[in-house]
Amino acid sequence: MHSYIDCTCRHCGFPFYQMLPVGHHVEVPFTVAVDDGEIYHGHKDYKWLEEVVKQSFPLAGQEVSIEKRIFKAHNDVVILNTLDFLYGHSLLKLYNAQHHLDRNPSTGLVLIISKAFEWMIPAGCAEAWIVDLKLGELRKGYTAIAEFVSAQLQRFDRVYLSYAYSHPDFTRVDIARYTGVEPFRIENFTHTTPRITFVLREDRWWHPHRADYWFYRACRKSGWLKVGGKLLSMRQKQLVESTIRYVKNELTEAEFFIVGFGTTGNFNGNTHDRRVNSLNGDIEREWCKIYSKSHVVVGFHGSNMLLPTAFAAGCVEILPEDRFGNMVQDISVRYHDRQQLFFYRFADQYTQPSRVAGKIVAMIRDYESYHRNMCKHVYTST
């Protein structure tokens, strides 16, 4: 959901929407013609964003339920628009709330937020405007939302608009303020039972071979992805189970959790399966508690790794080749020093279970000596 101004050229009467420098438009504030939806920007690297904007216009005329929740009255406010059709994009924008709450406490923070993130509204906000639409429905823009926001702005003396940066400094984010759950305490890394949590989705799959990937592409193109997806999910389950066996051979005391959306197949043995078919704030908070006790979380790029990595000590992410340019974009990096290289590890698209297991085991087994030699026994500037 974009932040824009409805404009008309004074000279020729040309009507257009001018995108404001918010979120992904910080560098490229598009101009969109009202009459035919033509987009003007002149940046060849933002074709993906152009396609997103095209889906937003013309505005849909359907009714939208919006709850206005007022926590504290303010005359001057800053608006943080977190609406987006992608889960990760919405969460990244929401992370900006802490900056405004801490740096500008005299200016009230107003969140425009989807109902899916209602459970993460941090204490201290002046207001929250909660939009009751599913994330997928936020691909389009809505006249009802535009009219609601315009009407509400009239209540204030002065209104600022947050940049809603898409990639804030994660090391400054206090995730407990959003969730009520404290992250993994790194000083306990070598003193607690190793826990590994796999984050799975049934629309993002780990493919062990190129043939598996092309099977997925063929299913998607032919309209058979619903059937093929079941096979891919079972295949992914086998890869996870194989990874667990490799880790168990090296770390016999380790415990394993599975979370995610979709429940294809059963994980047997001592694996704790916490997957679901429907999601709400209570379930997400319970998952956060699992992440917060996890030494390592493992997931595929695009499997909503932002929250898992905000809590866990480290991660292994399987990164497809066509997403190399997006490396670390879905990782909530907790460390500001060389520990980043130790705790955030990446595997290629067709990696094998033994290689993923090797990264997990090395992270847990080598941490004590790594920290002693690379973090403890060094001069610092303070």
Gyration radius, rounded: 23 Å
How are the strands of the biggest sheet laid out side by side? 12-11-10-13-14-15
Give the ordered list of helices and strands.
Answer: EEEEHEEHHEEHEHEHHEEHEHEHEH
Q: What structural class results from the helix and strand content?
A: alpha/beta
Mean pLDDT over all positions: 91
Residue windows where pLDDT falls under 50 for at least 5 positions: none
* DSSP helical segment count: 11
Q: Which word captures the global form?
A: globular
The top level CATH class name of the largest domain = Alpha Beta
Tell me the CATH architecture of the largest domain. Answer: 3-Layer(aba) Sandwich
Task: Give me the CATH fold name of the largest domain.
Answer: Rossmann fold
Nutshell version of this structure?
The protein is α/β, with parallel strands linked by helices and 382 residues long. The protein has helices spanning 47-56, 87-94, 97-103, 143-153, 176-179, 210-222, 225-250, 281-291, 306-311, 339-343, 353-376; strands spanning 4-8, 15-19, 31-33, 39-40, 66-70, 76-81, 108-114, 127-131, 158-161, 195-201, 255-261, 272-273, 296-300, 314-319, 344-348.
